[in-house]
Amino acid sequence: MNTTQVQEVLNNLKITALNDMQQASLKEFDKPNDLVILSPTGSGKTLAFLLPILSWLKQDVKGVQALILSPSRELSIQIESVFKSMGTPFKINACYGGHPFKTEQNNLSQAPAVLVGTPGRLADHIRRKSFDPSTVTLLILDEFDKALEFGFEKDMTSIIAECPSITKRILTSATKPAEISSFTGIKNPIELNYISASATPKGLSLLSVIADGHDKIEVLFKLLCSLSAGTALVFCNHRDAVDRISELLKAKGIKHGVFHGGLEQVERERALIKFRNGSHNILVTTDLAARGLDIPNIKHVVHYQLPLTEDAYIHRSGRTARMNEVGTAYLVLAEGETYPKYLKEKATVFHVDEVLTLPALPDWETLYISAGKKDKINKVDIVGLVLQKAALAKEDLGLIEVQDNASYVAIKRDKIQAVLTLIRNEKIKKQKVKMDIAR
To answer: Which of 13, 66, 107, 232 suits a disulfide with 138, CB 3.0-4.6 Å?
Structure first.
């Protein structure tokens, strides 16, 4: 890619410049070797492989040219969204569990140039001959270490075996593997290693909060009341802990979201949307949110339950203090609980406020619209509806996300009821749709 083409993409993404890792990836991609990119969570690995492949794709070639395997539904959706925002002439589709299989088959009937998805779902599509894998010439294994952790080795092996025309491979990982599995087909790769030896990211402050007794949930509530403004991720090791904390926060009147693998896909997507758009400032989650997700500007990371491994600690804490920003990680410790062995540095003790004030309500609320891309609805249609019909000022309209069958719009909390009253019976593109506050 030439400089002008790169700059056009960056302008579309509203990014001023590439970081060192992304620049190196762009440079090394043109060499015949396979490429291994090792870089922490949140460092921009998605763009590091999406940008170079634009020089690989050919407009006059039919069929899937680049196949991207990602370990989670959310990461697949994110990769699809970033690629679409790049403003290229190439089509991309995402396939993942929880998404209607028939819809994906219909999308694949006119094969995209780029196909991204979870290994399980993509293996299923290959078995059912939804697309022809023999046209794939470029393979990307994104967050490879996480894919192995999730048990996708068998599916990945079968997918790669069905793609005989692959001539180039890219593997990304947030941890350095002891060896690269032979089933990947990667040999003599160029390695770009941007993983720091330190478990604590630069710019991260590490604090500890000590509970009075063995039950930590009350001190967590006090901690959340004591945090400065900004978004917070509360990490737990188990789903039941997430649900227990959520019940307490609901009872205390603290707005928050919940995210873990036990939720339906639509619930998970909605939780991330509301967190991204500012309708929730607190997200209680398992390690599912520690990797690969596009959740910018996290101010606080709270380890309610201590991570079991150093890798888990690095990935969780890496959600904040990203891209030269600063952030804070909190270790919530029960009385007598000790630091994990992998944590060499001692945390400064943080004293929660004695006089508690509930966190302020988020500035935004989310409007749900029961129509999306499949109904030919786009962001321009939604902007026209809420700005014209509801006479809403531009500064009161936030992030808009249009999905296949639904759309979500961030509107200032003090305006949303008035907006809903004015537009509830309006049509979008002559279609009657349901509109309500997203729950």
So the answer is: 66
Tell me the pTM. Answer: 0.77
Query: Identity (one letter) of the amino acid at 65?
Result: Q
Residue pair 34/188 in contact by the 8 Å Cβ criterion: yes
Which domains, and CATH codes, for the chain? 3-193 (3.40.50.300), 204-349 (3.40.50.300), 364-437 (3.30.70.330)
129 Cβ neighbours under 8 A, 6+ residues apart: none
Tens-digit pLDDT profile for the chain (439 aa)? Answer: 778 888 999 999 988 899 999 999 999 999 999 999 998 777 789 999 999 999 999 999 999 999 999 999 889 999 999 999 999 999 999 999 888 899 999 999 999 999 999 999 999 999 999 999 999 999 999 999 889 988 999 999 999 999 999 999 999 998 888 789 999 999 899 999 988 755 556 678 899 999 988 889 999 999 999 998 899 999 999 999 999 999 999 999 999 999 998 999 889 999 999 999 999 999 999 988 877 676 777 899 999 999 988 888 888 888 887 655 788 999 999 988 988 888 877 889 999 998 999 999 999 999 999 999 889 999 999 999 999 889 899 999 999 999 888 999 999 999 999 999 999 888 998 889 999 999 8
Strand-pair partners of 368: 408, 436
8 A C-beta contact, residue 46 and residue 9: no
Say which amino acid occupies 271. Answer: A
Torsion sign (Cα): 23, 292, 271, 301: negative
